[in-house]
């Protein structure tokens, strides 16, 4: 009798005449759109400019793509950073790079336009549900797999083009774990969003929770090289982000409230 696991046989790509669409890209686009919807709702509740928020989301998306690619190359092939021809590619992106570069770019954009960093809280409010939607494409493609498993939530991707070593085996699915992590974060943080009165405490809470969840998750993923002390590069990045988030929350709580309307809760 076959072991009961989650079985997915969907083609990782969709052919529309001369156009080929990948579920990975479709998921990311849908995730950005859904996350933006919830971020706009948060912005409306805080009397923030929704058009300005949309501009910040676009900045995060564009900078995030660049950052994710550069971070992947830095982790896996640092020499490629000296070869501009290798900067471009449809495969090979590290989400932490997109998260770090995108947030930094949005912060710079908001500072230059004097809109106030409260917009980062709005984006953070929509991030978990956007991440949950965005990672569905990774589950379909078989990306971010871990060790083989016969657990009921292990995933077997049976399509021959799936990104797994063997279509006959089920694996721990990093993509599925990211969807679950993001949904749990959304279920906890979204109903409590009005409790984050201090500017940036919502942002740092999301960063810390995501970093902690990913630290655990990467014990069940095989796409990050070991770095030191039995931990891989992604886990050390998670540790750094959790530490930065803790400092950020403490700083946000001690910081005097700004006097501008954009900084008011």
Automatic annotation (TrEMBL):
One biological process term in Gene Ontology: lipoprotein biosynthetic process
| Organism ancestry | Bacteria, Bacillati, Actinomycetota, Thermoleophilia, Thermoleophilales
One Pfam family name is LGT
Q: Record the organism.
A: Thermoleophilum album
Give the family per the record.
Belongs to the Lgt family.
Keyword field: Cell membrane, Lipoprotein, Membrane, Transferase, Transmembrane, Transmembrane helix
For this chain, one GO molecular function annotation is: phosphatidylglycerol-prolipoprotein diacylglyceryl transferase activity
Name this polypeptide is given = Phosphatidylglycerol:prolipoprotein diacylglycerol transferase
Query: Which residue ranges run through the membrane?
Result: 21-40, 52-73, 93-111, 118-137, 169-190, 202-222, 234-254
One of the record's GO cellular component terms? plasma membrane
Q: Which domain of life is it from?
A: Bacteria
